[in-house]
Amino acid sequence: MRKTTIYLTIFLLIFSSCSKEDEIQLLDIVSEKFENLYAPQNGGRNQRTGQMEPVSGEFTKFNFSTGQITTSDTDWDVAFRATTIIVNGGVSLETIDEPTRTGNSAVYIANGTMSSVTDVDLMSLTQDSSNGYAVPTGGGNGWYTYQGPPVNLISPTPGKILVFRTNDGKYAKVEILSYYKDAPENPDAYTDETPYYTFNFVYQPNEGVTSF
Amino acid sequence: MKNFVCFILVFLCICANQTLLSQKINDSISTKILDEVIVSATKTLRQLSTLPLPAKLISKEEIIKSNSSRLSDILDDQIGIFVVPDFGGGNGIQMQGLDSEYTLVLIDGFPIIGRQSGTLDLERIAVGNIEKIEIIKGSSSGLYGTDAIGGVINLITKKTNEVVSFESSYKISSFNTNDWSINIGSSLKKGHSINAFFNTLNSDGYDLNDIEFLNTVEPYKNYTGFIRYNYENENLSVFSSYRIYHEDQEFKINKNIYGDNTINESSFNTSINYKANDKLSLVIDNYHTKYKNEEALESYSLDYDESFFNQSLYKAELRSIYEINQKNKLILGIGYSEESLKRNNFFQYKVSQNSNNYFIQYEGFILENTNYIFGARYDQYDEYDSEFSPRFALRTQLSNNLSSKFSIGKGFKTPDFRQLYFNFSNSNSGYSVVGFNAAKQIINDLLSQGQISNLIITESQFEGQLEPETSVSYNLGLNFKINTNISFDINLFKNQIKNLIDYKIIATKINGQNIFSYYNLDRAYTQGIEFNSTFKLNNNLSLNTGYQYLDSKENDVKKRIKSGEVYARVNTVSSSFKIKSDDYFGLFNRSKHNINTKITFIKDDFQIYFKTKYRSKYGLIDSNGNDILDNYDEFVKGNFVSDISVSKKIKSLNITLGLDNIFNYKDPQNVPNNPGRVLYSKITITI
């Protein structure tokens, strides 16, 4: 049994080194951490009057191929506003300041770790629709867990990997690490500022490749 | 005025026993232990030493020694019992790892109500008129019906045998806390006796946070009034009591908004016990209790908010007790109960629950050294399926010093009204909690108003009913009595709970906030071992020490971890990883280890009492967002809390000086019911 494994390993090594030489045109996978993506919103519950006011404010857009925030109306993959995450694909829920979708982005949430999610499950990809965003809102539904009083913390749910199809049909995976400025190890909802996303992402720049 | 009739052999016997005890007051302690009796275990007077169920008595002496004025103080001293703050307010108990809502608390056999969020606040109950506290561990639904999953705690009030008795005490402690009690009793000719008790407690409260207005405990004052009447002759005894409680708390939320919270409680019972002949007695109980909590928020401008919680309970029970012979006893009972609640944030203005019950209990001997109790109870509800709760207990005297006990029982708890009818929205963050029975209509209404953005649960899931939580509890104990001065107790326990009620998200509103509702979760268990020992080193010094190991987990979480579905993070900057079975710590707010030690030194009229309680680390929150408590979450550190008191008796006066929490353990965020070090002084006069 062990011998088989060794042979298999050797075979795979040879094979993988061969394929590297064969497909030399493949671009390297990008693996980066993005820190403090600031995504504020206006409205919500008014602290003074206690009244609900309509949510507004520009979404902070992000582009995986540049690995940077963008203000482009078309060339973005994912956008953030407070705890809400939208993709550049599907239809707008038409909240105030919500951008129109121009691309073909989609997303799903995989259970696993950054290293265990290695293949894109194409069937699971969803776009924003009139029924709701592809990344469900609300604590415990999508990417985060909300801990009620007394701590009132928003923590990214462990084991939730966001798998994206980008605007231009490539793939990326994201693990959100923190919602608080400078990603403190033990955030305090009363003193640490929000919403500052810190996340790890892996971007597959090669057209049509669905693995990372 | 339906409360005319009622009760008990039990109380007749208590009285008889109290006479016995007071006569033997000068005898050795061992004689007294043999004579200890308990009523809660069987609803009849029963010798504790041969009882097959795990039970514990807290004597009047122990209550006095600990200088406790509230039930929470004295119960917190017991091994395996924790008084834990509930974040909805109130300090409830945790026994055998089960929450406050699973333990029935009774005064003279009748339940105390007013569990606003499930927790019964033990601070409400003054102990100045309590003769003893009986604790039965393990499911007792076979005798008591709903809520007795973890067991029963019964407070027996004092009844005098003297022509006139008088006792008054005053205790002053830190935070300007004043507690004053008075007990007056009179035993009149022709079998009549009357006892009255009054207690008042006021305090400035304390503040452990930096917020300008809100204090951790706001200033409060409360009063307890209690009066009991007894009549006895050869074949008839009557017991009736009336209890009232009033509490008032005023506070300020900010510069403009101030609030007022009041609690009013009253209960009345009548029990008549008719002894038909040597073998047969009939007991009729009648009990009516009300609990009312009102909170008003007012502001100098316009905002005004009012909340109320108005609960009432009526119970009646008829029992026949047939003593076949000295060793065998049969009890048959039939009962009725009616509970109702009016509360704001409810789906309906008034909700109620009625039930009938029937029970049987047989006590007997198999062999000379082996006795048993078999009991079963059948509870009929309109809203739920009927519950059948059997119970069996067996005790064997293995040798002169060694005895063993085994008991198994089924327990249940019906969903409380909140879990069925709640319709609550948090005004700060906008989330909602709705009861199971209310969910369908509330969701439908919101859907038609276009308020729902995401429906997570289909309507059909609310077609059925929320099932009562049920449990099976096992207790296996050994008792070694090496001699009159040294004894050990070991008890292994396990409570397996099914249909545990939890809440989960059922829908998301268009404002992004969730709607939660209750549902029957899979299963959970609590299990462990409890050890108790008593050493009387010499005439002056005695030592009592105990240990509890507790393991409590949700079966479903264990399964999910095994199949690799649960992830965790060390902190927010690290990536997540799959957790292992060992990483699951268990249920929230449970410590694995608990040690209690009490040392008493008595010389003549002088007494020193020292006690210390260790609670190992426990978790209150899931800090890494995976919904379970794992080793990578934040924990409350293990801690010791030690108290000391010194008392001196001078004629009819007893003067005490004490210091609680000597080492000033404090954790404001996690343990808000601990104000830190408390200094007190108490003076008691007994005539």
Per-chain topology:
The complex is a heterodimer of chains A (212) and B (687).
Chain A: H1 2-22, E1 30-38, E2 42-45, E3 52-56, E4 60-63, E5 68-70, E6 78-81, E7 84-87, E8 106-111, E9 144-146, E10 154-156, E11 160-165, E12 171-178, E13 196-204
Antiparallel strand pairs in A: 1-13, 2-3, 4-5, 4-6, 6-7, 8-11, 9-10, 11-12, 12-13
Chain B: H1 9-23, H2 29-35, E1 37-38, E2 46-47, E3 55-59, H3 60-65, H4 71-76, E4 81-85, E5 91-95, E6 103-107, E7 110-111, E8 130-137, H5 141-144, E9 151-157, E10 165-173, E11 177-187, E12 192-203, E13 220-232, E14 236-252, E15 257-275, E16 280-299, E17 304-323, E18 329-343, E19 350-367, E20 370-381, E21 387-397, E22 402-413, H6 417-421, E23 423-425, E24 432-434, H7 436-448, E25 452-455, E26 469-481, E27 486-498, E28 501-509, E29 514-520, E30 523-536, E31 541-554, H8 555-562, E32 567-568, E33 577-578, E34 593-603, E35 606-615, E36 639-650, E37 653-660, E38 678-686
Parallel strand pairs in B: 6-9, 24-29
Antiparallel strand pairs in B: 1-2, 3-8, 4-5, 6-7, 8-9, 10-11, 10-38, 11-12, 12-13, 13-14, 14-15, 15-16, 16-17, 17-18, 18-19, 19-20, 20-21, 21-22, 22-26, 23-24, 25-28, 26-27, 27-30, 28-29, 30-31, 31-34, 32-33, 34-35, 35-36, 36-37, 37-38
What attributes does this structure have?
heterodimer; A: mainly beta; five-stranded antiparallel beta sheet; four-stranded antiparallel beta sheet; 1 helix; disordered N terminus; B: mainly beta; Maltoporin, Chain A; 2 domains; 8 helices; globular
